[in-house]
């Protein structure tokens, strides 16, 4: 038997999260998907249960667990039957708040991280803009000094949790890009969404992740205090590059966990579905198809767990994480697509949950750095 | 106030239950063991007594070394300490044998109130809490759907088919709770991790003054001679609805025949 990175405590956490997901979230998933918004009580409820601060030190209301505890959360959430929820929670726990713990002042940790852990404040991460997505250096939203604070102008788009967010961990330009400055004059800010000039311009309609509120945000002379600067001035690009490692890793974990779940459901369906007088599962073509996917799932998980082990020890390898993101995103979509094919008409209809998984999984190859961006990172690091 | 919550390790309630053909007791091999789901309710009630009255809560489990994860699981809800009675001689005990061990274990501990689940998810005899009360000569308030402690008095709503009776007793007393009593919480990860470092005392039968011969399969007051697995379910009746209303009549006849209506 292979060794597991999970302890008995992680297993108990897994069973608590699974019970919560199956009894409190899953029954509502279809409604939330149809309404295009998951209920506002979910985040405070998860905060109350301690699920939003598994790896956060107790001083900020967290549970003080290791990285594997957040892996457990990311692996269990896809069982809720909506990709939107794991994504929103991932943004809250592993994308928008880790920079506060790593770069923030004590006051920022108490005013943003601790309420996010309790589920009282919803967090979002603001990187993409109408004219800058994968190309972070092209960001145009700008903060200009104004007395003891800053005034921010610009727009952010495709922002997960963007409608419900209380604050946004935002990358903005604080200086023009200089040829000799590798970080391109960008800084991180914690921007409250109730400030004058901040506007949710639109909730975007999407092919999948329909229960998630993805927003286009306008910032029109939004004045923030000096304390809103997160980390070091002009070093935002470096900081966000670190943040993206955690974002990509947790997204990859959720993607592979979702793929495994879809695979299991497909096996179960093909065993009950009959064609030409025998079960669909009994055809060699079905078996080989499922075997190929199972093999890819196991291989991807091994690569991911190695990266998680490094991350847990405070280390990371950008090339490996890019590989995790690339392999997981493609696997998530390929498994969902094959699952839909094997479900046939049932898969294309909304009778089964497969079409939802298929629509949701498509985002994995775009969000958090598209496949092409991961390939560019890997190519560069391989010296190609 | 000192509270004790006796808990039981049971085979996974979702798994297939089997008897061991050799000694005709529950087959624990090949099926995952879990904390008895009824105990989640008794633990929740104890945790509430801890929150409300600052009660010190100790979990008590009778079972082999391999049951220790179940003790830790119980502790993860925020209980203070654990006592586990482990002895090979206990194996195969019936409800009365188990009650004897629990009663003696309780005699060796300090407590004001014992909160049981009303039954275990595997044996489902509902006998143990009352039997322990009888052996110890303390009041046992069983089938509680509500529990309240006022000073040195415990008040419960004792559930029965037509509603409930309000009954009370002076402490020390035993209570057994039914699943309607509360909504159990999930253990927090902090609680799960802290469970590892909570004190766990392991005792043998000799430690609590129980004679080996008084418990175990040999001392059981009932003997099982034979058992047969339940026959597989037969195919059901399929009622086709052709829209004429005949299906409804057929369904009603079937229900009447089976005495469901």
Provide a short characterization of the protein structure:
The complex is a heterodimer of chains A (384) and B (261). Chain A is an alpha+beta fold and 384 residues long. Chain A has helices spanning 8-35, 42-48, 67-76, 84-95, 98-103, 106-118, 236-272, 284-312, 318-343, 345-348, 354-362, 371-381, and strands spanning 123-126, 142-146, 149-160, 167-173, 186-192, 198-203, 214-225, 229-230, 274-275, 278-279.
3D structure, described in words:
The complex is a heterodimer of chains A (about 375) and B (about 260). Chain A has about 375 residues and is α+β, with helices and mostly antiparallel strands. Chain A has three domains: about 10-120, Acyl-CoA dehydrogenase/oxidase, N-terminal domain (Butyryl-Coa Dehydrogenase, subunit A, domain 1, Orthogonal Bundle); about 125-235, Butyryl-CoA Dehydrogenase, subunit A, domain 2 (Beta Barrel); about 240-380, Butyryl-CoA Dehydrogenase, subunit A, domain 3 (Up-down Bundle), CATH 1.20.140.10. Chain A has helices spanning about 10-35, 40-50, 65-75, 85-95, 100-105, 105-120, 235-270, 285-310, 320-345, 345-350, 355-360, 370-380, and strands at about 125, 140-145, 150-160, 165-175, 185-190, 200-205, 215-225, 230, 275, 280. A four-stranded mixed sheet of chain A has the order 1-4-5-8. The longest helix of chain A is centred in the middle third of the chain and has 37 residues, at about 235-270. Chain A is globular. The two termini of chain A are about 40 Å apart. The model of chain A has no long low-confidence stretch (mean pLDDT about 95). Chain B is of the alpha/beta class. Chain B folds into two domains: about 1-220, Rossmann fold (3-Layer(aba) Sandwich), CATH 3.40.50.620; about 235-260, no CATH class. In chain B, about 25% of the residues lie in helices and about 25% in strands. Chain B has a nine-stranded mixed sheet, with helices on both faces. The mean pLDDT of chain B is about 90. The interface of A and B includes residues 19 and 49 of A.
